[in-house]
User: What shape does this take?
Amino acid sequence: MNVSLDAPPLIDVRFARDIALAQVDRIETVRDLPLAAALGHVCARDVVATNAMPFFTNSAVDGFALRLADLTGATPVLPVAGTVAAGAAEPLVLPAAAALRIFTGAPLPGGADCVVALEEVTETDGRIHLHTLPPHGANIREAGSDQPLGALLLPRGTRIAPQHVGLLAANGIGKVTVTRSPRVVVLSTGDELADSTQRGAGQIFDANRPMLLALAQMAGCEAVDGGTMPDRVDPLSRRLAEIAEDADLVLTSGGVSMGGRDPIRPAFAAAGGESAGWRVAVKPGKPIMFGRIGRTAFTGLPGNPMAAFVGFHLFVAPQIAHLSGRSPAPFAPCKARAGFSWRHRPGRQEVFPVRCLGTDGTGLPLVERLGNGVSATLYPLAQADGLATIAALSDGVAQGDVIDWHPFGQGG
Assistant: This one.
């Protein structure tokens, strides 16, 4: 086993993203889930409407159904001949020269050509007095006007959200074919790491593993806790080989740099891993590694928490999306106005937490930079509304510049 200690040239972030995506294959396994259990899963097949909607012509308001031809005089008056309730099984026919009280969603009675809202009439002694003449078709929802027969309700590759659940339920669809959720195993390395209950002298609590597990879960994964391993090559290599047998992606943090106590690269090689790239031109997070152990993708993130968080958004979130059958979203797709000035040393693309202060005069979000670029702390990140980024060749940001940013919740 030989692992070169020479540092390769830094990989451009966009090229590194391509390398990361090349390590993962779309999951082909699908299953049917009840609609109530489908939230967060990825739709595996197009779902089309088997009916037009609304199913029948109905009233859009509470009011009175009537026939325009029955309205005469400057202040038309009509007797109320009955009531049409929502859910009425038997269709009613509008009597001549009369109105029918109707409720929202109730089927429009035969012969009616408009509905007058309650607030547009005065009702006395079983008769309504219209304040104004309604137009033809007022407050009527025609059958099929919202959604045609055969409409694409949910395209393949869509991650199912609450609004999709509502739409499918409205169409009477009770189950959905979804892609199996990616299985992502998250492992931390480091002799200095303590668990959440006891910390020895010189130790720190492991923030990365819980954070990365949470990020993976939010991304739609089966997130599996792979535990913590010491900085020793042999046990770590055995552990990597073990967890790679039953994972789509192995995600580690820590131990991937060039130090003498960084075991990931030699352990990865000893586990049969094939490296596809290492060291990315990004700050924070330069020592990021991509590869495969057999058919399982591997991504090694840095140990510093901010760097691990940034690396997940740049590279791991797109990997998870691709595994799930979704199109990976771009990083930092939005524009914002810088409410700060900052000098940047050209060479690496920099990513940093920002907080939204409101909007500028054009409607762009106005953001301020948080923290001082230290990658070992999560404190500024916990106060942030997103991540902003500037290009590797940029020499900084002037107040008022337009910059790229990634609001939290934008996906991967």
In short: The radius of gyration is 30 Å. The first strand starts at residue 30 and ends at 34. The CA atoms of residues 234 and 267 lie 7 Å apart. The chain has a mean pLDDT of 93.
